[in-house]
């Protein structure tokens, strides 16, 4: 891979892409499967792939999610075609014999829950970022957010498991007329250096 993507692709993924507060339209199940089939190729440490995703679409699922949302996120989340619960599995290591078969990677994490917590959160967050980029690549608008009660989400969607919620992402078609002015970003020299 040596050629840079065309400018319009970089715009769609980064420069002109925006976080939307109001999302409508339809997102079919096939699109959600294509979304996962893109994001799954993003790299994680030792191919851990700890992220787990719940695509909240049905009214019944929205009713389960609703009580966990902060007041400021309730209306926009209930109106979005899909809300993704981006979560991570603290027992991700059980899949490592399949995902990382050339070494006994499972043994690196067995019996060490604290080590798994760090790895699962870090690599699950990476996979959540890949979800955002994959959604944009497929022409969807996104609205990632915190602003919810993780314990309530975990109780409603992951009870009896070692899966923990991280953040939420609303998916759909954004209304550009409802966007806030774009917030600035820090310059290279403010945050980075080359040594």
TrEMBL record:
The enzyme's E.C. designation: 1.-.-.-
Cofactor: FMN
Tagged with keyword DNA-binding: no
Stretches assigned to the Nitroreductase domain: 27-157
Bilayer-crossing regions: none
Pfam families: Nitroreductase
Domain of life: Bacteria
The keyword Membrane belongs to this UniProt entry's keyword annotation: no
Key words, A-Z: Flavoprotein, FMN, NAD, NADP, Oxidoreductase
InterPro entries: Nitroreductase (IPR029479), Nitroreductase-like (IPR000415), Nitroreductase_HadB/RutE (IPR050461), RutE-like (IPR023936)
Similarity field: Belongs to the nitroreductase family. HadB/RutE subfamily.
Protein name: Putative NADH dehydrogenase/NAD(P)H nitroreductase GCM10023332_09150
Origin species: Luteimonas vadosa
